[in-house]
Give the backbone structure.
Amino acid sequence: MRFIEKMREILCLNEEEAEVGHVLAAEILRDYDIRGIFNENLFPGDAYDIGLAFGTILGRKNLKKVCVGYDCRNSSDCLARNLVNGLMNTGAEVISLGLCHTPLMYYSVYKLNFDAGIMVTGSHNPPEYNGFKITLGKDPFCGEDIKSLGNMITCKDFVEKNGREVVLNRIFSNYISDIVQDFEFYPDVKVAWDIGNGTTSNAVKAVTAAIPGKHHLLFEEMNGNFPNRLPDPTVAKNIEYLSKFVLYNNFDIGFAFDSDGDRLVVVDCNGHMLFSDQVLEVLAADFLRKNPGAQVIADIKSCNRLFDTVKKRGGIGIMERAGHSFIKKRMKTSGALLAGEMSGHFFFKDRWLGFDDGIYAALRCLEIVGKNKDAFNNLQYGFVTPEIRITCDEKRKFGIIDDVKQQLKRENADVTETDGVRVTSEEGWWLLRGSNTQNALSLRIEASSEENMQKLKRKIGDYLASDIKNIEEILKNENA
């Protein structure tokens, strides 16, 4: 272990950081990834220890090939270097992808059958965040696996062995070639692509150069400070410019991505941001025409209308807890070929490989628009809120959910506890859950009328009043 300890001393920036690097902060170990604030609760030394622990896990499974990529955040290069060194010091063979979007890491694992993959990315979070998305083979490394990795770091349960690093050539060009195949594109479609200064830049440039149509790229230069908008495209104010651009310039559709490219948000020709379950409804209708009787998975935040549409089209709707890791696992166990969640992740095993790829999802939408330019326009959803994110203390958020559960049990409410609480009543339904990627509660409400929407908001406000002081104001500002 002396060599490993010496490397930690070299890689960490100071004594305080070296000390922190021995034990990961508990709050960064999340259900489906590792994520924190750089140099606050996530340090370069932590990345090195994560490499040591995961490399040890691979070695004990007689596995060694792991590909590593990183996004354009200012801290990603540093974290990736430390991660790679940790992996190599346990005997791993690291295939370096360099600066890339997350779907390229998934693509590399799927196409070349690597033993594992790790992406250094803060995903949709603000610039100061960063973290690690990990796969073991094609399966997500999540839940108890991440907790076990944290325990290994605490116990310094590492092996020491020499590995190596290799650079993977041509994988990007192969990805571009594969992703645009098997599509019918139309030259008269006008599309705006909001890259948001994120890591999809190179891939979107290459894809739009390879397909017909009029394409306009917004905020296309990578910049880890994200000067034009924050990375989360599911927040309407973050894509206001895209919405106005599409409307004022008579574009047929607009696409927006998060910083690492596994999420997609769609804007219709009227400049309206669509909820992701609305987008999935259109994708599912097209998919089920060619695959009658197939299953479609949606997360628990999705509206009843989506599941009704899937049923009317002859499909089988499956409700799963939120989170890309859980969706992927359910796709594997169910055999479903299409899935999506409200956060903008879409998954296709039909004509693609099964992982969440915002660019591929955009191309599926583009194909539909080419055939019918009104396909995403004037989608009606009735009385429903967007996903409402309620900021709260990271250490308290799941405790709040437990308190609400107890209140609901005392009232004998109709509750589904798959993920947080989804409460059904004669007025409609509402979901309250703890976000696994932010220090926030996630709330969504669907009602049968405006009057019932207000009733549900008052009820929810009563449940949360003791913990969220401004809950009435938050709910008042979120219009159905």
About this structure: Residues 12-21 have pLDDT under 50 and may be disordered. DSSP finds 16 helices and 21 strands in the chain. The chain has three domains: 2-171, 189-371, 383-477.
